[in-house]
Amino acid sequence: MDLPVMPPVEPMLARSAATIPPGMQYEAKWDGFRAIVFRDGAELELGSRSGRPLTRYFPELVAVLREQLPERCVLDGEIVIVRGGRLDFDALLERIHPADSRVRHLAEVTPASFVAFDLLALGDRSLLATPQRERRAALTEALRGARDPLFTAPATDDLDVARRWFAQFEGAGLDGVVAKPPELPYRPGERVMVKVKHERTADCVVAGLRHHKSGPVVGSLLLGLYNAEGRLQHVGVCASFPMRRRRELMDELEPLRMSDAAGHPWQEWASAEAQAADRLPGGPSRWTGKKDLSWLPLRPERVCEVAYDHMQGDRFRHTAQFRRWRPDREPSSCTYAQLEEPVHYDLAEVLGGRA
């Protein structure tokens, strides 16, 4: 491979903001695997945000991109899976599998799509120093003939349209809006774009914790909500605490520590069968390898309020943010019924009727 922009390349990133800023180019914020595609003739590589290759996990995309992309190019975009008119991140996670036979099977039953939103090189020319508005025009022209499952991400410079997208697109599984300064060059690894994500709050039961990687202080709190059958379901974690607060939390939660998981609503997490059947804390992760996911059970008696952006199935899609303890709430009152349900929006409308 001999391109004007060579792998690995760290993607350009975004910092968070509370409101959509004016005077920008706006795109939907996609919920998938960020990937940079490098194509030089028959050679094609999918590089992840962390630099880990994704190529072997998406053979169906490799074939499509070889067929549809310009002979020599570098694109930034997102690998997504569409099911029922929505993005399905859980199905995407399943694609990271060590067995080639499983990878090939999933490529057939849950094929992925690629949504391109930036062009870093074309032919022998690097576009890293080119302004965003010019890169966008070049991307649109380069992918003019693209067809499902290759898409060009919709973009607008109309603030009112961006606000409407922010309200509507969540129902299709997207999680906000990204704003890009029109004169911005591509700056790998730097947070120079702006992302605006939905934020809501929920009262959750704290039913366990994990230690921090540095030692026996709180790394994350395991959160639960009761479903319609009265079962406490694991809904996610909150994890962003200063070190001093991690130590304080360990002391605060010590009276709730259980010697083992017997009698705990999630006691089955210790069994291999349960780990195989569901995505549970304490189980092995194909993506993180040997990362320690063990947990300590707590009596489910305390409630905290957390902020979250959106749901993926019955779980928080991203790490929730701790807001405060809620001593006025009974754990049994923490149910899924409190969660706001976004209005459904078909992803085909986002991608111009082609999803």
Please explain how this structure is put together.
With 355 residues, this protein is α+β, with helices and mostly antiparallel strands. The protein folds into two domains: 13-196, DNA ligase/mRNA capping enzyme (D-amino Acid Aminotransferase, Chain A, domain 1, 2-Layer Sandwich), CATH 3.30.470; 200-338, Beta Barrel (OB fold (Dihydrolipoamide Acetyltransferase, E2P)), CATH 2.40.50. 19% of the residues lie in helices and 33% in strands. The chain has helices at residues 59-68, 89-94, 100-109, 132-142, 159-168, 243-253, 272-277, 347-350, and strands at residues 13-16, 25-28, 33-40, 43-48, 72-80, 82-83, 86-87, 113-122, 125-126, 150-152, 155-156, 177-180, 191-196, 200-212, 215-226, 232-238, 296-308, 311-312, 315-316, 321-325. The strands form five sheets. Strands 3, 4, 5, 8, 9 and 10 form a six-stranded mixed beta sheet that branches. It has a five-stranded mixed beta sheet with strand order 1-13-12-2-11, with helices on one face. The chain has a five-stranded antiparallel beta sheet with strand order 16-15-14-17-20. The longest helix is centred in the middle third of the chain and has 11 residues, at 132-142. The chain is globular. Residues 272-279 have low confidence and may be disordered.
